[in-house]
What we know:
Largest sheet: 2 strands, antiparallel
Number of strands: 4
Mean pLDDT: 87
Number of domains: 1
Order of helices and strands: HHHEEEEHHHHHHH
Amino acid sequence: MNMNELVRLGTRPRSKLPSLDGTFTTASLYIEALAQLNIQHLLYQRNDAVQSADDCRRKFVARQLFHKLARDKKLSLLSNEHGPFKLWCDDFRPVNALLNEYLHIAGVVDWEFTYAAPVEFPHAPPWWLFIEKPEFWSAGIEDWTRVFDRRLKTFLTAMRHCEDIAAQQGPPRLSDQMQQSWESGDFWVAYAILHSFAFDSIYWQKIDRRFFGQTETDDPSEAWKERLVLLNDTQRSEMEQLVVRKLGEVGSGRVY
């Protein structure tokens, strides 16, 4: 989870982060905690966190429903609930790989964001195959998905070739797990968890309809209105209180 960015850019108080001494016994508990961090991100983000009352409601609904999925253990593989928890580096990408004169990998740097993570993270294919993140792709996330799918096929073919050379042929191979993550949409779940500032666009375009079904509208920015029925009375009341607070912060320069 990008907790450093949540504190540095999202103005989340350090005191609200999970305890340094805390551990998680299951994958679902860890993922639920990360989903809760996304809720806190909206609460503590600067006064430019929302653009309008409806934008605030849309972001609130997305985070509450995502947290519900996590709480109901819909976002983790129950077969791996108690591990194995694989070594995972949030900052692993081409810029942190060192090559020798033969273009062979000689080393990897920037390991400070490395930890033991649920298998859903390493099983997701690397977004950096495309260098540009989906939320920054000028033609939109759907176009990013289409082009990335072609790049991924090439990457997995090369990966399977390396796995065969290393005699790692016993199923399931990591290349097979990555293929499954991409095809099932688990890739997007992991991406939304790990990239808080891209959460809203990823959730409404890639996650919501997978778990809650189609909406009458085809506009992802309007789908939240049909999901209000999934919130209870307390959540709807909290949403309206948050709207009042956020709109009151606009232009005030106040930071929470």
